[in-house]
Design goal:
alpha/beta, Dihydrofolate Reductase, subunit A, 2 domains, single chain, globular, binds NADP nicotinamide-adenine-dinucleotide phosphate
Length: 172
C-alpha cells in the first residue's frame, strides 16, 4: 500500500521557511503522523529531509530524493536522484510506503497513479507559506473521500479535519 500523508491549510500551504507554519499548535499532528507511518518506508524530498534534521525517523527507512545531495546509502536511509528510482527501491523492500512530501514528489506520485490512500489533515486557517499542496484532490476524480472527522477538541487553537481518501477502482 502506498500512502500520501499531508497537512494542508485552508489556503493550500504545507510549509514555510523549511518548517510547518502551525508547528506546536496542532498537538495531535505528530502522534497521528507517527501512528500512520509506523513501520512504513518513507519517501521524501530534500527540504523535508533537511527539515527533520537529516536523520531517519525511528523505525522507518527513509528514501530521500535529491539531485544535489551526495547519493548516500546507509542501513537506515538512501538518497537517490529521482522519484521513479525512490519508488522502485521502496517497492522492492515490500513494506508499506508513505510519501511524506513535499510538493513536487506528491505531484509526481499522484500523476504516476501509485497512491492508494491520501491521509489529509486540513488545518483550518490561512498561513504565510512558500510551499503548497500541488493539486485539488476533489477535482482530480481519482480518489473519493471515505472518512472525515473534526479534531477541534484536541486542537483548541485551530480546528482541524482529518480526511481519508481512497483511490477509485475503475472496472474495464
Ligand atoms: N504540511 C506537510 O504535511 C508537510 C510535509 C512535508 C514537508 N512540509 C514542509 O514543506 C516544505 C518542504 O517541501 P518542498 O515542496 O518545498 O520541498 P521538498 O519536496 O521537501 O524538497 C524539494 C527538493 O527535493 C528534491 N526533489 C523533490 N522532488 C524531486 C524529484 N521528483 N526529482 C528530483 N528531485 C526532487 C529537489 O532537491 P535537489 O534540488 O537537491 O534536486 C528539490 O529541490 C518545508 O517547509 C516542510 O517543512 C510540510
Amino acid at each position: 500500500m502506498t500512502d500520501l500523508i499531508a497537512g494542508i491549510s485552508d489556503n493550500n500551504v504545507i510549509g514555510y521557511n523549511n518548517d510547518l507554519p502551525w508547528r506546536g499548535f496542532v498537538p495531535r499532528d505528530l502522534p497521528h503522523f507517527k501512528e500512520q507511518t509506523k513501520d512504513h518506508d518513507l519517501i521524501m524530498g530534500k527540504i523535508t529531509w533537511l527539515s527533520i534534521g537529516s536523520k531517519p525517523l525511528p523505525g522507518r527507512y527513509c528514501i530521500i530524493v535529491s539531485t544535489t545531495l551526495d547519493q548516500v546509502e546507509d542501513e537506515n536511509y538512501i538518497i537517490v536522484p529521482t522519484f521513479e528510482y525512490a519508488y522502485h527501491i521502496a517497492k522492492q523492500r515490500r513494506k508499506d510506503i508513505s510519501i511524506i512530501g513535499g510538493s513536487r514528489l506528491w505531484k509526481e506520485a499522484i500523476e504516476s497513479n501509485c497512491i492508494d490512500r491520501l491521509l489529509i489533515t486540513r488545518i483550518h486557517g490561512e498561513f504565510t507559506g512558500d510551499a503548497y499542496f500541488p493539486i485539488d484532490i476533489a477535482s482530480e476524480d481519482k480518489y473519493y473521500c471515505v472518512y472525515k472527522t473534526k479534531w477541534k477538541e484536541i486542537s483548541p487553537n485551530f480546528s482541524c479535519t482529518f480526511e481519508l481518501w481512497l483511490k477509485k477502482i475503475t472496472y474495464p
